[in-house]
Amino acid sequence: MKPNDLLRRRLSTALAMSPLCLGLTAQAQSTLPKTLTFLVPQNAGGSNDVMARAVAARLPALIGSNVVVENRTGAGGNVGSAYVAKSGVKDGSMWLVTVNSTQAINPALYKNTGFDPINDFEPVAAIALVQHAIVVSPKLPVNNLADLIALARREPGKYSYGSAGNGTFSHLLMEMLKKSQKINLTHVPYKGVAPAITDVISGNVSYLVSTVPACLQFIKSGQLKPLAVTSLHRAPALPDVVLANDTVPGLVGELWVAIYAPKGVPKEMIEQMRKAVATLQTQTDMEAFLTAQGATALKAGPTELLAMTREEIAKWGAVVRDSGMTVD
Predict the structure, then answer these.
(1) Are 296 and 150 members of one domain?
(2) Is 0.70 topped by the overall pTM?
(3) Residue range 174-232, pLDDT digits in tens
(4) 116: phi > 0 → left, psi -120 to 50 → alpha, else beta; which?
(5) Range(s) of the domain holding residue 235
(6) Which of 54, 49, 225, 261 is nearest to 148 (CA)?
(7) Domain termination site, one of 202, 220, 247
(8) Rounded distance between C-alpha atoms, residue 194 and residue 248, angstroms
């Protein structure tokens, strides 16, 4: 056989096999299932749920999968988080969309959460940062955080603060303030931030640490007065409100929403989800949505999110231990 004939035969054989090779390559790559579930361990309508639904509505255009949001609540987020952790679902069809308070505070607050925040999950991507504000009724004779501290010192035990519940950010941040400033305040826990806001407005409690999205409309209407935000940077929705950290160094607490996968989900799927979230965060409509919610995009992939989770566990674990609080 002539050399040219042999070359042509080898080339024909290679071309004939190429579709098979491409098929094998495609099969080797992990792709997301057609339907995904975002498991939210908090109530519908909360900051976490709202963020999860906003992402779920926009993801299909980027990944070609439908996304269903399911709320599985209880025990401060432990029920839903434990469900995902122990589900054994490794095909990329289930994702946990949760907040750092559940991942970082609960392990110190509860004797048994039912999950390990580090070993039971694969960190995927952060979605958004939700800032908090210290708010009071306009009737309270204070104009800033220093005034509030001075008032509490003049009349120890007279003033109270509301929270969204035991062990929540709104509770722990005020415990940090009490300890650092050596002031006596009465804690009044509520089931969620909404009733706490109502009682601050009516004067039943003196003040509150609230997420900015929850209290923003009442600030704009003049029913609440913001004294400071408890973040490292000023809140875009409240640009004139100063940082609590400037008056009380270290009084910093920020709620963030992030996506985690059950342990064992293929890295390719995690990367696909991370890229999709990163793309969403650059889209104009998503940016507008976050601004309207009083939130900002928080850009972090698996490595950064793991580090953030570890840091939060160390920080809030110390606060819980120092306060001596427990839930169960």
Answers:
(1) no
(2) yes
(3) 999 999 999 999 999 998 888 999 999 999 999 999 999 889 999 999 999 999 999 99
(4) beta
(5) 132-247
(6) 225
(7) 247
(8) 26
